[in-house]
Amino acid sequence: MPLDVPSCRVALLASCLLAAPPVVAVERFVGTAYRGNDNAPVYREVHVVDTTRHTVLFECPDGKAFARKQLDVEGSPAEPDYSFVDARTGYEEGVEREGATRVAYVRRPGSQRIDRPLPEKSDAVIDAGFDMYLRKHWDAVIQGGVSVAFLITSRGRFMPIHISADDPKNGNRQLTLRLDAWYAFVAPSIVVTYSESDRRLRRYEGPSNIRDARGKPINVRVEFPPSERKDNVAGNPFDEAMRAPLDGRCAG
């Protein structure tokens, strides 16, 4: 029986399309950090995100990177494993798996790494996972607030955090993350502002991953303007972020 050439080509093309890996959209957005009401930039955060990865480069105002954070958001976007390193001092922290156990680790300048096993927690939030948690539980948050277990990585402990929402204003909504305990007055709150229309982060106010000369997290206001956000980024932005030398020496 003679071959039906056009049909064979269609079948071959279909099989290739089915075998090809799906194209994953990559998003890139940039935030500029300031201290309080000071309008002089302290550093920039360059975020590259897809459905499985989230990489952040911390850059000096002159564009040189000095720190990097990698998050594995596949599977548990609100409580990712992650690693952070500040090349200026050698400070490191993160969460990783050791067999069946997850550990929070920290290495301060001139010290050995300290690992602390983490207990299993429901509704847990780790580092930048708060963004995905807020998006997923948006309705519950704005209707009365929710409480979650937020990881303080440097202490290796989950702390009770209550998230509440203000009324919308000018198309944005402000959310406050505050310790849900009697000693909340001794700890800083985190305030985040989201656009109502797309639920994207517009501003972050609170402690940073970046630390000062004493090793304490600095408090910052990070602005994420829509003009600095791009969808479907071409090229290899993750590779570029990983290859960037961490040789910036800005103050922070």
Domains (count): 1
Average pLDDT number: 87
- Count of discrete alpha- or pi-helical segments spanning 4 or more residues: 4
Strand content: 35-45%
Q: At the first level of CATH, what is the class?
A: Mainly Beta
Care to count the β-strands?
16
CA-based shape: globular
- Low-confidence runs (pLDDT<50, min 5 residues)? none
Please tell me how large the radius of gyration is. 21 Å
Structural write-up:
- It contains four helices and 16 strands.
- By secondary structure, the chain is mainly beta.
- The protein has a single domain (25-243), classed as outer membrane lipoprotein receptor (LolB), chain A, CATH 2.50.20.
- It has a 16-stranded mixed sheet that branches.
- It is globular.
- The mean pLDDT is 87.
Quick rundown:
By secondary structure, this protein is mostly beta strands. It contains 4 helices and 16 strands.
